[in-house]
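Q: What does the predicted 3D structure of Dienelactone hydrolase domain-containing protein look like?
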Amino acid sequence: MASNRPGKCCFSGFYHEGTPKGIHESIYGVDTYVTGSASPKEKVIVILTDVYGNRFNNVNLIADQLADAGYKVYIPDILFNDPVVALDGSVDFNEWLAKHDAVKTRAVVDNFLKELKREFGPKFIGVIGYCFGAKFAVQQISSKDGLANCCAIAHPSFVSIDEIKAIGNKKPLLISAAENDTIFPADLRHTTEDTLREIGARYQLDLFSGVSHGFAARGDVSDPVVKYAKEKALRDQIFWFDHFST
């Protein structure tokens, strides 16, 4: 593995205050958060969420900031209308994961991106994956069958080395990692780096000290260390996509 399967730390976090600007609508048969005034024929970002899903306030606010940077942003429901709600770690994560098969989840992601490309033919598609969603984001920059142009992931889980090897050298990958992370620990992080270097990938990996798994999507922003890391990770993503979409 390039990162371990989701664990207990993936099922807890903090709520971020704010009022989302976008709307939810059914797109290609999937409940989707949509935000941004940009044309879907131009620059698009698709966010693949952690276990809290596409109605979680935190990820909606992130999408709005990406939209403010000039992107049309979509957050499809990849959790079969079964998101985790509790932020206190009380959910039985093994039971939840058993109901969220990776093959079925990929099928939802593949279909959404295929239909998006068929309908609008965007000039650029970026994908972002947080935790659970990172696996499916990385799959979308496969040199063989990926449908996106560029990818950014934060504190990934469940990504395999074969999925990293499949990236090739033409679809860039940005990784935002936490210093304290049992899901993406130092040894797997280094293995991932070694593999990306071996295949000649265009990549960037940022390691944020003093933060834990989940910081970019559901960290405690009352802590200035976490707040900095969260905001910097998002700015890095915007800069990354801006660079490769021009």
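A (community wiki): The structure tokens above were generated from the sequence. The beta strands are 23-27, 30-35, 43-48, 72-76, 124-130, 150-154, 173-180, 203-212. The chain has one domain: 8-244.
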